[in-house]
Amino acid sequence: MADIRMRVNGSIEKLDVEPRVSLLDALREHLGLTGTKKGCDQGACGACTVLADGERIVSCLALAVQYADRDITTIEGVTSPLQRSFVRHDGFQCGYCTSGQICSAVGMLTEHAAGAPSAVTGDLATMEIELTAEEIRERMSGNLCRCGAYNGIVAAIEEGIR
Amino acid sequence: MSIATGQVQGVGQSLLRPDGTLKVTGEFAYSSDLWLDGMLWGATLRSPHPSAWIRSIDVGPALAMPGVFAVLTHQDVPGVKFYGLEHKDQPVLAIDQVRYQGEPVALVAADHPETARRAADAIVVGYELREAVTDPRQAAFDPACPQVNPHGNVVRHQPVRVGDRFTADVVVTAEYEVGMQDQAFLGPESGLAVPAEDGGVDLYVATQWLHVDQDQVAPCLGLPKEKVRLTLAGVGGAFGAREDLSMQIHASMLALRTGKPIKIVYGREESFFGHVHRHPAWMRYEHGATADGMLVYVRAEIVLDGGAYTSSSPAVVGNAASLGVGPYEVDNVWIDAYGTYTNNPPCGAMRGFGAVQACFAYESQMDRLAEACGLSPVEIRIRNAVSQGSRLATGQVVDTPAPLAGMLRELAAMPLPGPGSTDLRALPGGVAQTTHGEGVRRGIGYGVGIKNICFSEGFDDYSTARVRVELLGGEPHVLVHTAAAEVGQGLIMVKSQIARTELGIDRVTIVPADTTVGSAGSSSASRQSYVTGGAVKAACEAVRERLDKLRAGGASLAEVLAAGPVEETREYRHRPTFPMDPVTGQGDSHTQLALCVHRAVVDVDVELGLVKVVELAAVQDVGRIMNPLALEGQIHGGTAQGLGLALMEEIQVRDGKVLNPSFTDYLIPTILDMPPMRLSILENPDPHAPYGLRGAGEPPTLSSTPAIAAAVRNATGLALARVPIRPDDIALAGSALAG
User: Fold this and answer.
1) How far apart, in Å, are the Cα atoms of B376 and each of B370, B594, B604, B617?
2) Is the pLDDT of residue B155 over 80?
3) Closest-CA residue in chain A for B23?
């Protein structure tokens, strides 16, 4: 067992976990933060996306001990206008992917603000990349939504960044 | 999309999801999030073999593990040992044999999920392997084939026989296949069973139909129904996969045995074995027409592989047969639809339910016929389109608006997207493209679908609603209680909107769904807005009538309610339906039919086999728009699942074994795969339905698949008679247009 500390949603949490426990299971089963979802447990669906020091990661492919002394934000700790715009534009139906979608979108906006290009960015020299629908789709393509609310998700993010 | 901001958000407005805030803050409790102190974790041991005798089961090594509280086999099932939606033929736990890979054999309860998993793996099962029956046509038609099911290998054979003219000037014949699609909801099967002091069990579960779960669980536990109480937990998508039981009986057995709450959560791989799938289909169609493209006859043989157990296969066969020619007028029909038993994974309900498979075939045939007659795909469909008054293949007369020809004209007149760009980023495959786009071809295709709404063939299909008006904090307040499962479709809004509209009261609370109110039927067959919506409307009307009487003397609503709440419960039934004649297939088997038409525009790299869906356009008649925002979501979502079936989704089964039970190998559309949509939504009311509405969730799933397949054919010149269309099917075929 490993004794680690982690800042989760602003609070210092002490965790006594086996080294093989994923960050996702640590959050859900040790800390009771069930807002982060397990969809595939192998990094394919994005439902478990959380923010580590502001960067989006899939928590099912992260070990809790890797993130000792780091700052983790789960959906329970997110306060973003995106949450309202996801509701207003029906950016979900069942909602199971939504925690991950929103954490991913928050992380994506941080990446964009830092000037990070995506695979569809045309001019790699510019720091002023316009977040078009194509950019949003490309940058959100790691998060599956089986209800197919993708067009609502694009609309929600477009509104959320205005 | 406009978003209503007025006070009373009734029928027709985009009332936002009352559960939306919980879902965007992570507070909404899905079935996998449930937790009780002292609970144990259940795990299921499943058969690795598609067909085998079980000669022995040694649970000793599992029981000996620290932390294990119980290990159960079929001998521990307290009551009836079989369950099922239509035939009770599925063992709760395998008895002496297994008939599909993944069949549950034993259960474990332990104090940690990994302990439970390891203990399940420690159970020693002595299997004696048998040859698996995996070819559905051999199963159905070869008398020498081993019997998978004691009743024979045919679940149901439903013929349709009309007319006697089966010759025509123009004849097109082809065989089609549809792969096995998975519902692939993101929230795997899960739930919590809590033993109760009265010897019963309280079950919190994600399901589509609480009461049919109760009807199946209670006998297997040897308990009266009132001792098996179900409450709907948060549902992470359904799409048909939660119509059958998964962990309900298993968790309850473990709870009753250990006296402790039991949580079972399937992982993704187990989920692929934990629910039924869409029936794969083999279909042979022959269409005969006059030289000017008027249908003379349709002959079809449809074989749907139901896998090892019955599930809802009989009803799926009924849909494939009754809707097997599509929404077209044709006087001579000869259909044989079969459902088979094999040792492949069990198949049952998935969005579109039997109508999807036939739709791919008959729409592909209409395109072939158009080509043979020198007509456009739109024109041949218009010439043969049903309309109000048309007689379907079953003899059922379409007695409500069915403006298919007009829908097709409107669809064809919608603007087309601009020409494809040679920018690498816009090509099929995106920046992973290794060419300069020289092999990319544009294609356009059309698809038409007709889906029965609500349960058919004489099923007693109803829903129950309890509506109560009372004063809370001095203000009138409505409580709406039904057992209908909110699975993401937005019924929770529709119920609230109906209550607001009927009672004129803005403060509405939707009580959590459970079995303390009468059955609502299933959240399937696109039926809940219709049937549960109808029940809520009827209960509201009854409440309103009583309130009106109480207020006859001029009293205010608040004064009347000060004397106590007013509550009414109503059941609602749609018009009765009738069984199909077992020989001729004739009968008014459906209560409502809904139409959707799609146009797909694709870019195909004919050398690499990559497809990019550029745009999807749809026209759907929904009778009455209940909630514009949620309706658009249903059409987008249904279309996306049809896109998945057209281009990527298939459970690959070889020798009865699933090769790809994961999201890295079973592909579902991403946000990059799903293009923008153009929608036109029509409101031609069905006078028999509440508010004139038509069920809307399934029709788009039908028509988007053949539209996309047709567009890929249009781009490549290939026949492509099987979905999903794989890159190999295009790249290795050598395109007629290439070079």
Assistant:
1) 6, 24, 21, 18
2) yes
3) A95
